[in-house]
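User: Structure please.
Assistant: Input sequence and predicted structure:
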Amino acid sequence: MKYLFLPVFALSVNSAVAASSIKQLDVLGQTVTFTLAEPKSHQVPNCVSAQNHEKWAVNLNSLQGQAVYSLLVTAIAKEQLVSVQSANACESITDVEQVKNISLMVNNAIVNSNVPAIYDGSGMNKVGKIVRFQNGIYEYVPIDGATDVERYINYTTDSFYFLDSECKGELYSQNFSRTYRDRKLYSERFGSFFGYSDPDDTNNYLNSQGAKTVYQYNNGACLQQNGTASGFSYGALRLVPTTHPLCGDKPCIIK
C-alpha cells in the first residue's frame, strides 16, 4: 500500500485518522469542510462542537490549504481513500477541527463504494462523482481530472407556449432570464432538450407574433390563452432543440 503525502506538512503520529472515503465536501467561501465515511476515533480538540464532531476544515487562503483541497477533489474523482491528521485546533472555523496533513492512497481505490455517481443520459458513461445533493442541486467532481466542484440540475418541464391549437410546432418558454441564458430544458413529451434562441433577436419573442392566438401545454392539456401573442412579456422566448453539454440527448442518470 502506498500513500501520496503532501510535502508541505510535517507528519505526526497523533490524531491520525485511518484511510477512508470522503462522504461529503463543501466549499464555504474561503473554507472547505469535509467528512469521511469512517467516523473519527481519536480525541477531538475541545473547541469542536458536537454538531460538527465529524467535520474537518481547510483554509483556502493558504497554498497548503489549496493543495489539500486539490487532493480531496482528486480522491473523490478517482475513488481513492484519504488519511487525515489533525492540527489539534480549530482555526478556519471556530468549532470545526482543522486539518494539519492529508495523505492520498494511490494504489488502492475504494471498493464497493456507496457514493453515487453521475452518468450521461445513456447511463453508460460516468462523468462525475457526487459529493453533495441539496435542493435539487447535485454537486460533483468531474472524472476528467478537473479540480473544481461542478453543479448539475435537471430542469424538466413540459409547460410551454405554442401558436398551434394542438400545442405542436415551435414552442416558447414562459420565464426567460439572461441570467440563465445557457440553461437546458428537458421535455419528456418531446424526448428532447431545448435551449433558448438568440435573446437579442426580437423576432424570437412570442410577442413578435402579433394577433396570433396563443396556447399553453400544461399537465397534458393544450389550453387557449387570453389575449394574443402581442400581449405577452419578453419572458416568452422561442426555444430550439439542443443537447446537454454534460448529459447528451437525455437527462443525466444518478446511480
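The helical segments are 63-77.
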